[in-house]
Amino acid sequence: MSPENSPDLVLNNRYRVIKKLATGGMAYVYLGHDMTLDRTIAIKILKQGLSRDKDFREQFHQEAKAAASLSHPNIVTIHDFGYDEGKLFIIMEYVRGVDLKSYLHRQPDLTLQDALELVEQACEGIGYAHRAGIIHCDIKPQNMLVTHDQKLKVTDFGIARAVSAIQTDRLQSVVWGSPHYFSPEQAAGYDPTPSSDVYSLGVVLFEALTGTLPFESEDNNELARMHQEILPPRPRSINPAIPTQLEQIILKILSKDPSSRYRTAEQMAIILGGYLHGHPELGKLKRPSPNPPDQPIREQFRRIRPSFKELDWGTIALALMTTIAVGGLIPFWFYIWLTMNGY
User: Which of 70, 238, 263, 271 has the most C-beta neighbours closer than 10 Å?
Assistant: First the structure.
């Protein structure tokens, strides 16, 4: 029985599943309760296709064990992991907040400083993991949680890495990570490095400051080609409020050649932190507020179509009177014309 249909499911006689919070590409996330320590937790249950794979389970345990050793304020803490009832699961701290993707859409007044500070926090957490020899492999705003006081925590360490490790052909046709955010080398099927995580963080930074992604396509193969071959648009062409020096930093991070980027997320955090410290005016510059991707078309048109109350009735009345006045002169001019022509 799937966890969606069994809200009272208890894993390892300890972790009670309460309700589903989210669904991802590889797992479901649930609100849960640790009955031993009497605390609220988040439970991530991997989908059946992964849970049934013995090789994946073994590799996952190795990656989860490494990820559980990470202790940093910008990383979601892993408390436990296991296999029970035919389900592979992770027990994590419960973070009360929303993912960064949703947060960016819900904050129309977010400044460049706010956006930079959030990405800097992500860099600090991932940089700490890089120092421990752990590469995330699947960096995207959906894997970053933002609390009500703008504290950011990165989640999902280990899962993407475990998936990649069970592939027998390292130059595989199936790329790792999320197509909009993966690095050129991941798009080509090569092993990711800390610099690959830096590139993905650069895509998140680009999106946070411009409100758009550098590359858009519904075809994953086309996205892979774009990441490998096409230069990203200049951020200032989308958001002129971005200073030139900051644009140069973003384009360096999005370099196709890994050696041209910052080597680790920690270096990227230092650069962003230094820039923030020296440019207090960023707190006054706004980022664009894009329409949510799932917003109905009629709602988008409603934003630009004036409502009944918003119409300028004075202007409309004046235009109407002008039309009537001009229209009333037509018979008069017609009479003059007839007289001048002897009719």
Answer: 70
Active-site residue, selected from the candidate residues 114, 138, 156, 197: 138
138 is catalytic: yes
Give 62-119 as a 3 state SS string.
HHHHHHHCCCCCCECCEEEEEEECCEEEEEEECCCEEEHHHHHHHCCCCEHHHHHHHH
Q: How far is CA 15 from CA 20, 42, 241, in A?
A: 14, 10, 48
Angle at 158 between CA 201 and CA 61, to 5 degrees: 175
- Residue 168 token pair: 């027998």
**pTM of the complete model:** 0.79
Q: Strand 39-46 and strand 152-154: pairing?
A: unpaired
- Report d(CA 145, CA 100) in Å as an integer: 6
Q: Which CATH architecture has domain 3-93?
A: 2-Layer Sandwich (3.30)
CATH code for 97-284? 1.10.510.10
Maximal CA-CA distance, the chain: 109
User: How many CB atoms are located within 10 Å of the residue 245 CB?
Assistant: 10
Buried b (16+ CB within 10 A) or exposed e, 255-293: bbebeebbebbbbbbbbbeebbeebeebeebebeeeeee
Residue 333's identity, in one-letter code, is W
**What CA–CA distances, in Å, run from 228 to 47, 184, 309, 323?**
31, 5, 50, 60
Write the pLDDT tens digit of every residue in 157-202: 866 666 555 554 433 434 455 899 999 999 998 888 999 999 999 9
Evaluate if residue 65 carries a pLDDT over 60: yes
